[in-house]
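Task card 7
Instruction: Convert sequence to structure tokens.
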Amino acid sequence: MPAPTWDGAAPWGGRPERFRPPPNVVLVAPVVISAIVQVPAAIAIAAWMRLPASLEVLHVGLAVAGPLALLAARRAPGPTVAAVTALALADLVLPPDVGPPYVALALAIVLAVARGALGWAVVSVVTGWVAAIVLASGFGPEWHPLRVAGTTVLLAACFGIGAFVRVRRERAAAYRTDLQQRRRTAEEQERMRIARELHDVIGHALSQINVQASVGLHLMDRDPDRARSALENVKATSKSALEEVRSVLGVIRADAAGDESAPLAPQAELADLPKLVAGVAAPGFDAELVDRLDAEPPRAVQFAAYRIAQEALTNVVRHARATRAVVAVERLGDELLLTIDDDGRGVQGAAGGGGILGMRERAALLGGTVAVERSPRGGTRVTARLPWGGGA
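Output:
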């Protein structure tokens, strides 16, 4: 028998785990319960009433057949409730008038309604109960009205229990579907976060390496000192990129290991902006930082602003053909305002489209926005507005 399982998980759905028995237990339990009630009672009543051997065997056989028929309730709940109703009818109309409660019929009704065979259950039970009343009134002892009413109420209660079980099953199925969807969504968000981090780190580094390597090749013969400086910048940029990639991978490993103390991302700060801006400078291209901040926002805001500035500068270097870029950061009320202006031709078409989407996603995670528009300098202006207390 398979091990018990649990339905639900608190970390994803916010609800405590609930025990869910294996399918085999759900299938066998009604058979065992009805057999334990019906078979010993049928044997005892037959011995007490001193029934003929043939009639005793028939009653015990009906008491056994009903529970065994429930084995088919999982795959064919409709025919099962019809068969059990027929067996219960036979047991009811055969003498003597006193007999064990036919528990198998109650369980067959509950299982049929719970599994969607309501029509089968209604037709079978109503037909069987009407036939029992007619046969009893015509060929057997007359039943007291209270017995008829009580039995009718019990049958109706079985339908109610079955409907309740069906509603619970549907809710459980909907909850499991929602749980799986949340897990898939969380996995997709995690993949997007990892892709965004690696894109920002590697994309920026490769752009800088490409620019500096081009400068080095161009000046190799004419100005060896400047060429050497460009190659040194390539070395420094590649080293910094490797360190950041290792940091990203370390965060991913920590997340996979369940280390809740690990940061959600490598924590670059606004204090690193001067180094970032200085790193993109090259012959024919100048970058300037205008820092008007008099205080520091939370780390999450600093990290988002740094990555947005990094991606914007990467797009300028790769696509804008600019000669100058200005990065300005300041506080306006409850917002951190970050602007990156260039004097190039701007980001055209699909160029830099993925990077712009990544910048907007970063800002949206904190409740901020990123706008891309024409710059007064003639190129492109990227404006990021981030809540000052975002992610605090």
